[in-house]
Amino acid sequence: MTKLLGHEEIVEEYLEELKNVIEHDGVLKNPIVVDENTNIIIDGHHRFEALKKLGCSKIPAYFIDYESPMIRIETWNNTEPVTKDLVIKSALIGKKFPAKTTKHMINISNHWVHISHIQKEINIPLGRLR
User: Potential cystine with 56: which of 18, 42, 95, 129 (Cβ 3.0-4.6 Å)?
Assistant: First the structure.
């Protein structure tokens, strides 16, 4: 888990709420999405931080090729443009974007959908992640 790099800040209130849900359920329902070349978290910053707070040393991840043209980046607030290069640079230098800035999309059957569509439910018990 220590080799993974985030590119967005987290919302403390949401983090605490998510941590409590995961702890109550006793399982992690969905993996995070990580770039296979840089180990940058593309989706799942809050899940990553929640598992760290729960004492987990492992986190299931779905690895993607972030440079693929099948993946594009948008913003949630549509105010300032963000590029893949900016995401990589910000993660590598530790200068994170505000929470919920980036919106990663993937092309599935000629339809652009949020990258969370590739995260199949896994329901891994927390005990296996500690």
Answer: 129
